[in-house]
Amino acid sequence: MSLSFNNEKIKSFYDSVVNYYPSYIKENNWGTAEEVTKAIMEESYVEDEEIIVKLKNGQLSFPITLFEFLFAGVESNVFNNEIGSRFNYSGFTYIELKESPVIRIESEDKIHAGLYKITENDSDNLTNCLFVYDESDISYPSEIIPFFVAQLLPRLNKSLINFQGNFLLHFEPIKYVIRIKQDQNTLLIKLFYKLAAELGLIENKIDERNKISIKSKNISLANILFDITNENSQNLLPLYCFISAASNTNPYYRFLDIYHIFESLFYKHFYSYVKNLPETDVSKKTYREIKEHMTDEQMLKLVLINSLLDDEPLRVKVKSELLNCNAEEPLERLGQTLNISEWNTKNNDEFAKKLASIIYKLRNSIAHSGETEKHIERINDDPDLTENFINITNVIMDISKKTIYKNIYAW
C-alpha cells in the first residue's frame, strides 16, 4: 500500500490510545509498540474500501480516511478532547449536539443520516456542515474525522474485547456534529436557534451532560438548507434566550428564558405604538394611554399583538392547547380566574391582552417571592399542577418562535 506513514503519529497513537486499554487487552490483542507499528506499516491491506490491520490477536478494519488521518500526514493528533467541549482544528470549530430535553419534534419521518450544508453560499464545498450519524453505516466523513479522533480517549469502550471488525465499534458514537468556520459567532447563534427550534437539537455542553434521559425522536433532515449568514448581528438577544430555554430542564427557569424573549422586544413595540398614534390626536387622554402602555404587562401585550396578528389559526391553536393542559387550575392557585373557553380568537387585541395577563402573572410568581406575589411554590408543591405549568410553558414557547420570526428580519 503506497502511503507515506508518519512514525511519530503511529507512536503517538500507541502511547495514547492503545495504552489507554486495560493492560491485558493491550498485551493480548494489540501487542507491543513494535508489533503494532509493523502491523500498520507493513501488514495492512485494502479490502472493500477499508484498510485491514492484522494485530497480535485479531484484526481491525479502518475506514481509509480515518486510517490516513491517524497514521499519515504531518500534523500531530489530539486524542483527549473532553466530551461536551468544543474543538478547534485547521480553522474550524467542531461542536457536538444532542437532542433537547424540552423541544417537541413531532415527525413520523424516518431519521436521515448524512452530511448537510448549513449555509447557502457553501455551494457543494460543505464548508459549514451538519453531520448526523448513521448507526447502520458506522462511519464518519472526512469533514468530521478530526473531531472523532480528538475524542478517542473519552469515547473508548475499554471493556470491549472483540478485535474482529470495525475499529469504530470500540467507541461511543458521535450522533450529531456541526463544523463551522472559526470566528463566525453571529452565524453560530442563528444556527443554534434554527437547530433548536426546527430540529430539537442543542449543544452538548460539559455541565449539562447526562442531566436527563432523552427519548429518541424521528427527525427528517432531507434537503436541509439553513438560510442564514454571518452578517447582521442585531436583535440576537431573543435567539440567546430561546437557545437557553431549549437547554433548560428546570421548567421555571425555562419559563423565564421564554419571557425574556418577549421582554427583549418591549421597547421596540412600545416605540412603534407611540409612532403610529395619529399626530392630530394629542390630548391628556393620549398621554394617559401612552403612560399606561409603559408598564411591562402592557408592553408584553404589544409584543403578543404583533406575534398573533393575522394568524387566527395560531390563536385557535393556543386557546385549544391551554384548555387541553388545564391552564386554568394552576392560575387559580395563583389567584387569577380565567375563562379560556370564552376567549374570542377573532379579536387579536383582546386575545393578546388575556394571554399577556397569564404570562405576566406566571412571570411574577416565579421572579418574586413575597406573599403578595403568590409565589410559584403554590404550584410546585403539587405534581399535577407542575405538569400543567410545564404544558403551559410549552404553549408559550411555541408562540415565542413566531415572535422571533416576526422580529428578526435579516438572517
Topology:
Layout: H1 7-16, H2 23-30, H3 33-41, E1 45-47, E2 50-55, E3 58-63, H4 64-71, E4 87-89, E5 92-99, E6 114-117, E7 129-132, H5 145-150, H6 152-155, E8 164-166, E9 176-181, H7 185-199, E10 201-203, H8 237-247, H9 251-263, H10 266-275, H11 284-292, H12 296-308, H13 312-324, H14 328-333, H15 348-367, H16 377-380, H17 383-407
Parallel strand pairs: 3-8
Antiparallel strand pairs: 1-2, 2-3, 4-5, 5-9, 5-10, 6-7, 7-9
Helix pairs in contact: 1-3, 7-8, 8-9, 9-15, 9-17, 10-12, 12-15, 12-17, 13-17
The sequence of SSEs as H and E is HHHEEEHEEEEHHEEHEHHHHHHHHHH
Task: List unreliable stretches of 5+ residues.
Answer: 208-224
Task: Give the percentage of residues in beta strands.
Answer: 5-15%
Mean pLDDT rating: 84
The biggest beta sheet is recorded as: 6 strands, antiparallel
Gap from first CA to last CA:
48 Å
Q: Count helical runs.
A: 17
Shape: elongated
| Total domain count | 3
Please identify the structural class as seen in this structure: alpha+beta
Radius of gyration: 27 Å
What is the number of strand segments? 10
Please give the share of residues in helix: 40-55%
